[in-house]
Design a protein that fits this description.
The complex is a heterodimer of chains A (170) and B (555). With 170 residues, chain A is an alpha+beta fold. Chain A has 2 domains: 2-75, ACT domain (Alpha-Beta Plaits); 82-152, Alpha-Beta Plaits. In chain A, 26% of the residues lie in helices and 40% in strands. Chain A is built from 4 helices and 9 strands, in the order βαββαββαββαββ. In chain A, the strands form 2 sheets. In chain A, strands 5, 6, 7, 8 and 9 form a 5-stranded antiparallel beta sheet that branches. A 4-stranded antiparallel beta sheet of chain A has the order 2-3-1-4, covered by helices on one side. The longest helix of chain A is centred in the middle third of the chain and has 13 residues, at 54-66. Chain A is elongated and about 55 Å long. In chain A, 25% of the residues are buried. Chain B has 3 domains: 2-170, Rossmann fold; 190-350, Rossmann fold, CATH 3.40.50.1220; 363-532, Thiamin diphosphate (ThDP)-binding fold, Pyr/PP domains (Rossmann fold, 3-Layer(aba) Sandwich). Chain B is built from 23 helices and 20 strands. In chain B, strands 3-2-4-5-7-6 form a 6-stranded parallel beta sheet, sandwiched between helices. Chain B has a 6-stranded parallel beta sheet with strand order 11-10-9-12-13-14, with helices on both faces. In chain B, strand 15 (379-382), helix 17 (386-394) and strand 16 form a beta-alpha-beta unit. In chain B, helix 1 (5-15) packs across helix 2 (30-39), helix 1 runs parallel beside helix 7 and helix 3 crosses helix 18. The longest helix of chain B has 15 residues, at 50-64. The radius of gyration of chain B is 24 Å and the shape is globular. Classes of the chains: A alpha+beta (170), B alpha/beta (555). At the A-B interface, helix 1, helix 2 and strand 4 of A face loops of B. The structure holds thiamine diphosphate (TPP). Residues 383-387, 410-413, 436-439, 462, 464, 466-470 of chain B line the site of thiamine diphosphate.
Chain lengths: 170, 555
């Protein structure tokens, strides 16, 4: 099963190496990892998607907790949450096929961000499933380059994950 | 007060109550040594190799309960520490390791004697710091001591670039730490503690499986009380040995790969396994599905990640073993379990620990004799191999914290430097090293430290002319195809000792052993005793790979 973890960490140098190293060292598989600053400049937030059963998830969580720089870990998978990923795809496109590609973009609410002589570059956000479908739809045209951010996620409504109030209900 | 970072570092160490630093100097750590010299408040023990220094600090910590402090220079000095840091990490020993680093402007440039020691030690430290900002040094030191010594103890490394060490700061040593990501749990959850007590009262065949956590938390008194209240036999891990009196009728000795048959049988047949400060290491459990197959499991440990890691646990309790037992004891009543104890007694009689006392000097006999002559009260350091297992099997420790051995990492070469730290930490105790001819040669250089520091340690080499433990493995797993385990040259340890000005003895027989031991042990200086033991002797019983611990073979 896939779990989405929201991990708050001290914004210290080396913290990414500590977290990533732990996963590889202990043989846990990371599906995706996205990291960036939060509303608090001292704190970074990692969204980590891990594959594994409950036992593995428990070990991942406990081992992460042992890192001094890890402040808080929440498995948000069982909750209602919003998740997004951003992809930028550069596809091969002869002027003759532009229309077709633009139609695909339309369907996925993707945006065209660059046009070259023989290429077209699109950006799209959405959940994992949508991004995968978008990628598949463009594959026949010839994907030249593709970059994905990895998933970021946030709980819905009044529940939140922060340093002082993990999944608080108002 | 304004001072250099190096001076501030020494001042901080003073404020942490550090009395001794084990170390080895070099260029990048020069300012710190200079500050140490100028301030003159902390004793420095110069090892002959950084690995020696770190093992000494490790053993010093084990015997005193204080954080061990070790210092080395950048590059090769730092990498020479790595084995010792890993050793301390595996055995949960609190260390603060200070390494010099090239100046910040050169960090990352492959400068002379630069290694990324924080990167290298990431998986073998509890935490580590590269101090780039001089003003942060006091907080870093405060945090380092706090992290090393609280929760599940472990080593913390501080890497200090040379230019930072010479900057000037105003020392303001914090008196508390604020680490929002680090809050160890000490008190067990009351509901779980009650549940555990109920299980203990209900069980018919309980066994207590006690590890190093008992010694770390100082829970030996509580362990004894629990065992006697429950009439539950106690088995120890290697790290837990000496936490329960070796001559107590409830004592089963060590369990696991080379454990006693009665300990392994008791665990296999028990209906409740009470794991206290132990971590179900593979050398204990062997085939995990056959380990305590019919038992409910209560697991008390300070490290939540250990609970449920290797076996399924019925009552998990995260907390300090001592505090948990203190909360638990009032919830249990004295219970008579004569049937179970009778069964245990039968196993003890049926499968006694022994060895053939024929012809040649037997290594086990050497250990039994040392135990007799020291009344089970010596501080015993070991190296790694057969001799280590024989110490575990045949030295009956009377008092806690007296066995100093490399458990988790199994580091050959740990022993001799460990005696340095142990004797420095306990100047009035009798410190004995029991080592093998292989292990001793791994860190032999520390003999110079022993002499220089006038440490009256007693070194017993169980000399079997080979790497006995691996020879034994080759006998059983490789159809006696011996390769790289039999020495065709072993130095004469007695002559060698002479070069260091140390008295030496060679012992070939049981009668010599008994005759000479009083003289050896009462010698006011260091002594080297070369015991020429039967090279064919094996550690028995032994559980073969993949077998349950009740399937041990005699060998
Ligand atoms: C640093 C290190 N290298 C290799 C080993 C593997 N090893 C385990 S026991 C052993 C033999 C130890 O020989 P010795 O010290 O003579 O003790 P004996 O087994 O003969 O009592 C070896 C090589 C180890 N534990 N540590």
């Amino acid at each position: 099963m896939r779990h989405t973890l929201a991990v708050l960490v001290e914004n210290n140098p080396g913290v990414l190496a500590r977290v990533a190293g732990l996963f590889s060292r202990r043989g846990f598989n990371i599906d995706s990892l996205a990291v960036g600053r939060t509303e608090n400049p001292d704190v970074s937030r990692m969204t980590i998607v891990v594959e594994g059963d409950d036992r593995i998830l428990e070990q991942v969580t406990k081992q992460l907790h042992k890192l001094i720089d890890v402040i808080k870990i929440s498995d948000i998978s069982p909750e209602e949450y919003v998740d997004r990923e951003l992809v930028i795809i550069k596809v091969h496109s002869d002027p003759a096929r532009r229309g077709e590609i633009m139609q695909v973009a339309d369907i996925f609410r993707a945006r065209i961000v660059d046009l070259g002589r023989k290429t077209i570059t699109l950006e799209c956000t959405g959940n994992n499933g949508k991004i995968n479908a978008f990628e598949e739809s463009l594959r026949p045209y010839g994907i030249k380059e593709l970059v994905r951010t990895g998933k970021i996620a946030m709980l819905r409504g009044l529940r939140f994950t922060s340093v002082n109030g993990q999944k608080d209900d108002d | 007060m304004e001072m250099t970072v190096a001076q501030a570092l020494i001042r901080c160490l003073e404020m942490e109550g550090v009395e001794v630093i084990f170390g080895y100097p070099g260029g990048a750590i020069l300012p710190v040594y200079d500050a140490l010299c100028k301030m003159g408040s902390i004793k420095h023990i110069l090892a002959r190799h950084e690995q020696g220094a770190v093992h000494a600090a490790d053993a010093y910590s084990r015997v005193t309960g204080h954080v061990g402090v070790v210092m080395a220079t950048s590059g090769p000095g730092a990498t020479n520490l790595v084995t010792g840091i890993a050793n301390a990490y595996m055995d949960s020993v609190p260390l603060v390791v200070i390494t010099g680093q090239v100046p910040t402007s050169q960090v990352g440039t492959d400068a002379f004697q630069e290694v990324d020691i924080t990167g290298i030690t990431l998986p073998i430290t509890k935490h580590n710091y590269l101090v780039k900002d001089a003003g942060k040094l006091p907080t870093v030191v405060k945090n380092a001591f706090h992290i090393a010594s609280t929760g599940r103890p472990g080593p913390v490394l501080i890497d200090l670039p040379r230019d930072v060490a010479t900057e000037t700061i105003k020392l303001d040593y914090p008196d508390s730490v604020s680490l929002r990501g680090y809050k160890p749990t000490y008190k067990g959850h009351p509901t779980k503690v009650k549940e555990a007590a109920q299980m203990m009262m209900k069980a018919e065949r309980p066994v207590i499986y006690a590890g190093g956590g008992i010694l770390n938390s100082g829970a030996t008194g509580e362990l004894l009380e629990l065992a006697e209240m429950l009439s539950a036999p106690v088995t120890n891990t290697l790290m837990g040995l000496s936490s329960f009196p070796g001559d107590h009728p409830l004592f089963l000795g060590m369990l696991g790969l080379h454990g006693t048959r009665y300990a392994n049988l008791a665990v296999t047949k028990c209906d409740l396994l009470i794991a206290l400060g132990a971590r179900f290491d593979d050398r204990v459990t062997s085939k995990i599905s056959s380990f305590a197959p019919d038992a409910g499991v209560v697991h008390v440990d300070i490290d939540p990640a250990e609970i449920g890691k290797n076996v399924q646990v019925h009552v998990p309790i995260v907390g300090d073993v001592r505090q948990v037992l203190q909360a638990l004891l009032p919830n249990i009543n004295k219970k008579d379990r004569s049937e179970w104890l009778e069964q245990i007694q039968n196993w003890k009689e049926q499968y006694p620990m022994g060895y053939a006392r024929d012809g040649m000097l037997k290594p086990q006999a050497v250990i039994e004799a040392i135990c007799r002559h020291t009344r089970g009260e010596a501080v015993v350091a070991t190296d790694v191999g057969q001799h280590q297992m024989w110490v575990a099997q045949f030295y009956r420790f009377k008092h806690p914290g007296k066995l100093i051995s490399s458990g988790g990492l199994g580091t050959m070469g740990f022993g001799l430097p460990a005696t340095v730290g142990a004797q420095v930490g306990r100047p009035d105790s009798l410190v004995v090293l029991i080592t093998g001819d292989g292990s001793l040669q791994m860190t032999l250089q520390e003999l110079a430290t022993v002499v220089e520091q006038k440490l009256p340690i007693k070194i017993f080499v169980l000399n079997n002319n080979c790497l006995g433990m691996v020879r034994q493995l080759q006998e059983f797993y490789c159809e006696r195809r011996y390769i790289a385990t039999e020495f065709s040259f072993v130095p004469d340890f007695v002559t060698m000792a002479k070069a260091y000005g140390i008295a030496g003895y060679t012992i070939k027989s049981h009668s010599e052993l008994d005759r000479l031991l009083p003289e050896i042990l009462s010698n006011p200086d260091a002594v080297m005793v070369n015991c020429l033991v039967d090279p064919q002797e094996n550690v028995s019983p032994m559980v073969m790979a993949g077998q349950g611990i009740d399937q041990a073979i005699d060998c």
